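Researcher: We're teaching a course module on how sequence relates to structure. For the next exercise, students receive a sequence and then see the predicted structure as tokens, so they can try to spot secondary structure elements on their own. Here is the exercise chain.
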Amino acid sequence: MKPDSIDDVQSRARAVSKPRSDRSALAAADIAARIHDVAPALGARSAEYEALRRVPIDVIETLRSIGVFRIYAPRKFGGLELDLPLGLDILSILSRIDGSLGWTAMIGSGSTVVLPSLPRQTLERVYASGPDVICGGSAQPAGTAEPVSGGFRVNGRWPFASGCQHADWLFALCVMTRDGKPLPGPMGAGGPPLVRAVALPASEFIIEDTWFATGLKGTGSHHITLKDKLVSPDHFCDFPDSVACLDGPLYQSILQMLPLFHCAFSVGVARGALDDLLAMAASGRQQQRAMTSMRDSETFQYELGRVATDVAASEFALQGGAAKLWAHAVAGTLRTDARLAESTALGGWLAGSCSRAADICFTLGGGSAVYDSSPLQRRMRDLHAAAQHATIHQRHFTRAGQALLAEAAAPEAADLRLKAAV
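Model: And here is the predicted structure for the students to work with:
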């Protein structure tokens, strides 16, 4: 069987998603408008986020009341279940205001796509009080789960649990063991061990105050710990090869979608850095030993034009990539190794391109950009910290190259290339 062309995929996706897309667009526009109203107040508190090393709870509750944490929650439980690209737009808007704010929203709302991987009865408990559930956790398999009477004995210490201080539910990955030895994973003996995710109310975890970092300082990405915790089997799910207990394209291909959330963050922060630079230039600032003001300098104008084009290109890349992957999700063709390679490569490229754009904005800002009071240095730090995340790290370009070579070696691909050439 020949693979579907993207035109075929998009055609089917449009037929399936048109009614829900209209509803999603209206809901997303309403949330975006409400964020716009509070953006100046939220952006004015950036220094506070970094000083506290977390986003304050009153800001979290503002985001919750706006509906940010229900954008990807299931409609079955009162959520909006937005089309993926529309929710990404909201995350980019928040990241444009402030990096720590956007990251916190990205983790808290994006992580909810994992929840339907849990058994149905557990998912009902998660949403028992409504759809505005904040989720988080750690994607490192830094724990173990040993079968005992009544469930599993869980022990672990997991890093980078962003937003854990205000989360309602937290995920953590565990190596499944028996008699203290790791169980073999899907590849059998010699392959990676069996890893599953455990989800519990956040209050069940111990939070260690460890988040002292150079970037994303206000995200509260502390370590979380469980010690000899007895957990019932219905709080576990397969990860990443989970099967959702709900229908809907948002919940069927988690691993392929996760890089897109990071893309939205990167693009939003890069656009924010450009905003900051433009505001500096518009003030009439003239830097020391410069012959003219920033805005009247042809050198500055040239560099500004280049970096603005870089940021716009990143935005277009995100829009196109998100549209394509969402079309595959709606058509049921997203859950493949090729699409995973594609999404992680896009995430890595955008993380790098947006970091470089922030670097340029910082350099053009001159000596004043080095002070803590400058948003340019904060944007730069946040993007470089975010680019270190395992989901979108540069090493994933290897996977993308391997996928392309595998596709090129397939007879079906060769046939398609021949027809295209003719």
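Model: If you want an answer key for the exercise: The chain is about 50% helix and 15% strand. The chain has three domains: 6-126, 135-238, 253-285+292-421.
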